[in-house]
Design goal:
A four-stranded antiparallel beta sheet has the order 1-2-3-4, with helices on one face. The mean pLDDT is 79. The radius of gyration is 15 Å and the shape is flat. It is mainly beta. The protein has a single domain, classed as Nuclear Transport Factor 2, Chain: A (Roll). The chain binds zinc ion. The site of zinc ion has 6 residues, from loops.
Length: 122
């Protein structure tokens, strides 16, 4: 899953499209090579948490990507959902600026443990 976000940093729009779940894609496949400017100037990526669900089919990554736009540092904060198809992870959809998961609530991965004792690594 992490490779998807490395792709953001590299500005590889085509890879992002290809790793997008076919049922959730919009638009046509971007041409190669995509230009790094397509996605702005990415500076840094931090993973808030990532989780491979116990069902083996779903995953979730929450990240903050920092980029520059008109000299201003911007933050894209997203919680992204993934599905595994034939051994590969595909992005399905995501939520922007998600509310923080409660440390004491059940972990989204389905382990039955509390988030703080499971996928929360912070
Ligand atoms: Zn978990």
């Amino acid at each position: 899953m992490r490779s998807r976000y490395s792709a953001f940093a590299l500005g590889n729009a085509r890879y992002l499209w290809q790793s997008h779940h076919p049922d959730y894609r919009q638009g046509a496949e971007p041409p190669v090579p995509s230009q790094p400017e397509d996605l702005g100037q990415w500076e840094k990526l931090t993973i808030v948490f990532s989780s491979d669900f116990v069902n083996g089919q779903d995953g979730m990554v929450e990240f903050k990507a920092y980029y520059r736009e008109n000299q201003q540092l911007q933050i894209l904060h997203e919680r992204s959902n993934f599905k595994k198809v034939a051994g590969r992870w595909f992005y399905t959809d995501g939520e922007f600026a998600p509310k923080a998961l409660e440390r004491n609530s059940m972990c989204p991965c389905g382990s039955g443990k509390k988030f703080k004792q499971c996928c929360n690594k912070s």
